[in-house]
Amino acid sequence: MAPITVVEGRRLALSNLEKVLYPATGFTKGEVLHYYATVAEVLLPHLRDRAVSFLRYPDGPDGQVFFTKNVPPGTPEWVTTAEVPRVEGPSRMVLVQDLPSLMWSANLVAEFHTHQWLVDTPDEADRIVFDLDPGAPASIVQCCEVALWLRDRLARDGIETYAKTSGSKGLHLLAAVRGASSERVSEYAKALAVEAEKAMPRLALHRMTRSLRPGKVFVDWSQNAARKTTATPYTLRARPEPTVSAPVTWEEVEECRAPGRLDFHAADIAPRVQDYGDLLAPLLDTDTAGTLP
């Protein structure tokens, strides 16, 4: 029988704690749960009031990996859910609002993915995101070059940008915005991606065409579509090792000369939070959100 743990008054059955989920390092499910408990203070504000899609990998990244968007069977009644608009019709999804919900979700063994809008205002985007994806032999080093150009370009429109690793090969740029639909934000993001390609034709690419991508950085603007989700800050990723989508400083981006410089694992995050706090906390301040030109 799975051990019962009480988290802030909620009873949770946490299963298979000794199961190795990351064979390359021996990282167990119990360590996954410990990681999320440790970073909950900085992670929860980025999850709260956002419908969550779970990319589940219950047998590790080498096993079956699948998305769960609807409320999973067996979800406790105290976990908050909400009806959200979807192309195929309204759907009920999970909201991770507190520590018990976070630990219940972590027990599913899943990456956390969220939309660029809050569940109460699905018609208005509150984020703009760029997913910078390198095509080999390009790496995160080249992503950083593109990121710096985009940071400066967005600043000219009065939009302050923040960076995090994808937890995989690339880099994510995020900014808080207000007063625009997801469609309008997507249009703006695409225009900047096209502009980046014109400014750096040997480095940046705004089209997804696979044959064009080797050696370049694909500036994926499409993540801003209302239906799309992006890996939430601080989520573990379903990769061979327990890598994290970790916030980084612009100084780290500017100084990145080798891919490993921005490779962060679960054990790295608590010390970084102690040193820096939440580098993405400004995204949560609606008073400083930018407006699209």
TrEMBL record:
Example of a GO MF term: ligase activity
Keywords noted in UniProt: Ligase
Domain DNA ligase D polymerase as annotated: residue spans: 28-279
A Pfam family per the record: LigD_Prim-Pol
NCBIfam families membership: ligD_pol (TIGR02778)
Name of the protein described by the UniProt record: ATP-dependent DNA ligase
